Inverse folding.
């Protein structure tokens, strides 16, 4: 069973060292997260897989790593100073400050066409504060999302040292277009790729690492002749979708959505979103936009831009004339992709049937839980309905539904029902013994590639051979750990939960014939391989 709630993923991430709440020793900072030892490996692998696919495996791409802080004029002429904002309104009654377009969409059942339409609805008292229900709302105003800071030893109080923390990495690419073109002697079409941090003072961050104020982007600006843009756009949509699929994402969880006209950013002629079916619903994973020549033109010296030092143009040898290229921009989030791969890989699975009397006891308790929820007063009707139907389906399907019971035991709405304590008392033990949590990550993305165990930790010969093997695999470039802190079954479970594709056990036969057992995470099948050939064999499976 895949992860049905984001809480399941958050809990795994915290428990197993993928992601921690940031600055938690001081109570944290809302919606900021730190990647722990396994999280940083996973996210690095996602970024590496992206770089390999869009730079190393292509002939028409270059890489770049531009500075986060840039001349403020970049953001003036890109249009971000004037337009990179969310519409906010204030409730005079309860002082809440909600996002006006979200309130409009929730209460009118469709997206607003712009600020004018939102404010007309506020004036006509058609919108209410989502917190207290009052209609006493101020007009909606744009709230700029860029973080401001200042350059220099003193903050002079005016805006002379003002710089922004970049809200997208894209502009660093545009302003380096001429540098890359000149130094790398490129001809159209070609692209520039960049991975790096971006910052947005989001009004409503949330859903774990899905929307945060500090995040990492993986962006491509692909330059083409005007007129060749639409075909290049289609090609990139297919290319980027395939990237996720090749890394194992389930096709039914990935879809392509055409943005509607009113959703388009100020620079875009067309934009297509790749959306992933996150536990909270279909949401944007990556946007693939046709930015036309908007950016290169905006940063070129002209009557509208007297500040630029030159023109970002291209001399077309074939047509013997200068032109400003069009740009296709596949723009992905490294954090969002990492979260999507985690959600997609997660599974709670039954590995063996529990004894009949345990199943019967558990069924009785889950049925009692369903009856108790049904009798509960003061619970929202939709929550009640969901819990009752889930519990009834689980009770009817046990033991096959044991993995779903794990989800119900972690459901925060279920925790307030007294009998859930009893369900957990019995259910957690049975689940522990008969199910496993496994991350079916693509081996290239898994934080660890191999775990090596000695069959017995008190036998020096087994320990020496296992430690030596670990060192050999490490030297061969495979991320490997050694573990001897439990029985083999328990060690397998531990590695399954973090997505390690292969576990290697050194046993007594290994001492005689130099072979080891290699256990596959997904099939749980074991094979015997020669220890000396292991590195080559596993490396070839990663390729
Ligand atoms: N240069 C175009 C651009 O920045 P965007 O749709 O605003 O377009 C591109 O952002 C991608 O960056 C998104 O699809 C998402 O994956 C990621 N992203 C944007 N805002 C984010 C946030 N607040 N937190 C995490 N990821 C974010």
């Amino acid at each position: 069973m895949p992860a049905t709630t984001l809480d399941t993923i958050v809990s795994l991430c915290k428990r197993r060292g993928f992601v921690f709440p940031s600055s938690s020793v001081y109570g944290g900072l809302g919606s900021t997260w730190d990647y722990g030892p396994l999280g940083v490996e996973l996210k690095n692998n996602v970024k590496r897989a992206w770089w390999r696919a869009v730079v190393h495996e292509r002939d028409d791409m270059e890489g770049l790593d531009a500075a986060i802080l840039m001349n403020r004029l970049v953001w003036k002429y890109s249009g971000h100073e004037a337009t990179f904002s969310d519409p906010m309104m204030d409730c005079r009654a309860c002082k809440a400050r909600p996002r006006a377009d979200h309130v409009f969409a929730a209460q009118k059942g469709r997206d607003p066409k712009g600020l004018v339409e939102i404010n007309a609805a506020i004036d006509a008292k058609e919108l209410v504060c989502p917190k207290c229900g009052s209609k006493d709302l101020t007009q909606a105003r744009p709230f700029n999302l860029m973080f401001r800071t200042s350059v220099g030893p003193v903050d002079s109080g005016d805006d002379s040292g003002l710089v922004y923390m970049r809200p997208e990495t894209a502009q660093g690419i545009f302003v380096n277009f001429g540098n890359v073109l000149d130094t790398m002697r490129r001809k159209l079409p070609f692209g520039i790729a960049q991975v790096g941090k971006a910052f947005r003072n989001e009004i409503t961050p949330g859903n774990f690492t899905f929307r945060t104020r500090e995040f990492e982007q993986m962006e491509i600006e692909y330059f083409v002749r005007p007129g060749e843009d639409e075909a290049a756009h289609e090609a990139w949509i297919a290319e980027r979708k395939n990237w996720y699929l090749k890394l194992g994402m389930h096709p039914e969880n990935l879809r392509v959505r055409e943005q509607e006209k009113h959703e388009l950013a100020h620079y875009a002629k067309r934009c297509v979103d790749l959306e992933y079916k996150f536990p909270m619903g279909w949401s944007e994973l990556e946007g693939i936009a046709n930015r036309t020549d908007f950016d290169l033109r905006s940063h070129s010296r002209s009557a509208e831009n007297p500040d630029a030092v030159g023109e970002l143009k291209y001399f077309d040898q074939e047509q013997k004339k200068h032109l400003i290229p069009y740009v296709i921009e596949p723009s992905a989030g490294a954090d969002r992709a990492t979260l999507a791969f985690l959600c997609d890989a997660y599974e709670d699975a039954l590995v063996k049937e529990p004894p009949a009397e345990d199943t019967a006891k558990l069924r009785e308790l889950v049925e009692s839980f369903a009856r108790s929820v049904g009798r509960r007063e003061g619970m929202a009707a939709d929550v009640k309905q969901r819990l009752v139907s889930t519990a009834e389906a689980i009770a009817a399907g046990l033991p096959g539904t044991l993995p779903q019971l794990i989800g119900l035991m972690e459901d925060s709405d279920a925790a307030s029902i007294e009998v859930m304590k009893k369900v957990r008392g019995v259910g957690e033990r049975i689940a522990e013994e008969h199910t496993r949590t496994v991350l079916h990550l693509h081996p290239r993305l898994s934080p660890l590639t191999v775990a090596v165990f000695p069959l017995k930790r008190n036998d020096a010969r087994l320990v020496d051979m296992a430690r030596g093997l670990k060192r050999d695999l490490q030297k061969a470039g495979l991320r490997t750990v050694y573990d001897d802190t439990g029985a083999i079954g328990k060690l397998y479970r531990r590695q399954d939960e973090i997505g390690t594709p292969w576990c290697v056990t050194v046993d007594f036969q290994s001492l005689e014939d130099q072979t080891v057992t290699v256990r596959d995470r997904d099939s749980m099948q074991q094979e015997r391989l020669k220890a000396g050939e292991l590195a080559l064999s596993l490396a070839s499976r990663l390729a």
Summary: The chain is about 40% helix and 20% strand.
